[in-house]
Design brief:
It is built from one helix and no strands. It is mainly alpha-helical and 72 residues long. It has one domain. The longest helix is centred in the middle third of the chain and has 57 residues.
């Protein structure tokens, strides 16, 4: 008859450490995904802002080139 070997204290500790490492890695991966998502949203917002600034600059230049407001 084979006798089942009980896990030693060291094996139990190693298993617990392994579980904590896996959990920590999962949390880090989730955190990295969240940061990348925020970064992408920020980049999109900055792109929109840059577009609006360009449109405003064009409107100001067009207004200036045309000689200002039309006088009735």
């Amino acid at each position: 008859m084979s006798k089942k070997k009980m896990p030693s204290t060291i094996e139990k500790r190693l298993f617990a450490i392994e579980e904590k490492l896996e959990s920590g890695l999962r949390e880090m991966a989730e955190s990295i995904r969240a940061v990348k998502l925020r970064q992408a949203r920020t980049e999109m917002a900055l792109a929109r802002l840059l577009f609006l600034c360009g449109a405003l600059a064009k409107a100001v230049i067009d207004f200036w080139v045309s000689g200002g407001p039309a006088t009735p």
